[in-house]
């Protein structure tokens, strides 16, 4: 089996999903997974896949299957409306046609996102395989943030979902501890690593999130590349992030905490 470890908070979330093993085990057995994330929303039965590994499709199954494709000109995400169940043998070829320009331009190893919807909820998984160009990772993270916004909106405004959450003792986003409580020590020790970043580490994190390289960050901060590399390594160690995908997700997860700090950095 591939090397595969989850942070404690994520593992406890995944353990709540009875479909996680059935969906992910074949992938875990065959591929080196570098990152995975889950978000949940309640909806109808569908499965959506975006992948640069068409052969991975044979490992997935669901009552209904739909693809997310790429617009070859602008690389904007869109719903291709292509149902796998309608033409299963040609599915890999279809995905190749949609994603080949992206692979050619940015030399992506492999990126994957899929949603598993069962009964009245959906588990949303994100997986990064290999290391892609930072511009592609930024596009993918932008797409994932849009998914998050949709998920949050659905959970907060849909009365049936609210009723379901209350009846099944599921916490809505508004009931969870907000990230501004970080500095007050009111959420787990792991999360407090975020609040422990120094000013220089925060500045380095901001510019890394903007897709800047270490030499570029050094020039912006007017310090040596060697010192900048030290700050970057320190923040990666504190936050346990090792790829643009992980970094982008962490910034998104602590959006309310980082946004005012990043705004100040940008203004200065």
Q: What do these coordinates show?
A:
It is globular and about 55 Å long. Helices cover 49% and strands 16% of the residues. It has 2 domains: 8-171, Beta-Lactamase; 192-267, Arc Repressor Mutant, subunit A, CATH 1.10.10. The longest helix has 24 residues, at 134-157. The protein has helices spanning 8-15, 20-30, 91-106, 134-157, 159-167, 189-195, 199-209, 214-221, 225-239, 244-253, 255-267, and strands at 35-41, 47-51, 66-70, 77-83, 110-118, 121-129. It has 11 helices and 6 strands.
Helix percent reads: 40-55%
SS summary, helix count: 11
Q: What fraction of the residues are assigned to beta strands by DSSP?
A: 15-25%
Tertiary shape: globular
Q: What is the rounded Rg? A: 20 Å
Q: What is the average of the pLDDT values?
A: 50
Major beta sheet, specifics? 6 strands, mixed
Supply the helix-strand structural class.
alpha+beta
**What's the CATH first level of the largest domain?**
Alpha Beta
- N-to-C SSE string, H for helix and E for strand: HHEEEEHEEHHHHHHHH
Model regions low in confidence, pLDDT < 50 over at least 5 residues: 1-161, 171-190
CATH superfamily membership of the largest domain, which one?
A: Transcription factor LuxR-like, autoinducer-binding domain
| Number of structurally distinct domains | 2
CATH architecture of the largest domain: 2-Layer Sandwich
Strand order of the largest sheet: 1-6-5-2-3-4
InterPro entries: Sig_transdc_resp-reg_C-effctor, Tscrpt_reg_LuxR_C, WH-like_DNA-bd_sf
Domain HTH luxR-type: 190-255
Protein name: Response regulator containing a CheY-like receiver domain and an HTH DNA-binding domain protein
Keywords: DNA-binding
């Amino acid at each position: 089996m591939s090397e595969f470890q989850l942070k404690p908070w994520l593992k406890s979330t995944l353990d709540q999903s009875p479909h996680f093993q059935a969906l992910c085990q074949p992938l875990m057995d065959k591929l080196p997974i570098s990152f995975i994330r889950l978000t949940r929303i309640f909806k109808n039965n569908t499965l959506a896949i975006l992948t640069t590994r068409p052969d991975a499709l044979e490992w997935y199954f669901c009552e209904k299957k739909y693809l997310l494709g790429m617009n070859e000109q602008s690389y904007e995400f869109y719903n291709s409306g292509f149902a796998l169940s309608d033409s299963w043998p040609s599915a890999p070829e279809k995905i190749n046609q949609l994603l080949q320009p992206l692979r050619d331009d940015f030399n992506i190893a492999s990126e994957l996102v899929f949603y598993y919807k069962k009964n009245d909820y959906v588990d949303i998984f994100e997986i990064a395989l290999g290391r892609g160009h930072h511009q592609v990772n930024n596009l993918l993270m932008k797409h994932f943030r849009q998914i998050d916004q949709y998920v949050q909106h659905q959970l907060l405004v849909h009365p049936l979902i609210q009723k379901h959450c209350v009846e099944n003792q599921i916490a809505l986003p508004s009931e969870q501890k907000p990230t501004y409580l970080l500095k007050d020590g009111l959420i787990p020790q792991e999360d407090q690593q975020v609040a422990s970043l120094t000013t220089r580490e925060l500045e380095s994190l901001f510019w890394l999130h903007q897709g800047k390289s270490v030499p570029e960050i050094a020039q912006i901060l007017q310090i040596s590349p060697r010192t900048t590399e030290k700050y970057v390594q320190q923040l990666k160690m504190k936050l346990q992030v090792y790829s643009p995908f992980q970094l982008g997700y962490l910034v998104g997860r602590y959006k309310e905490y980082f946004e005012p700090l990043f705004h100040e950095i940008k203004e200065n």
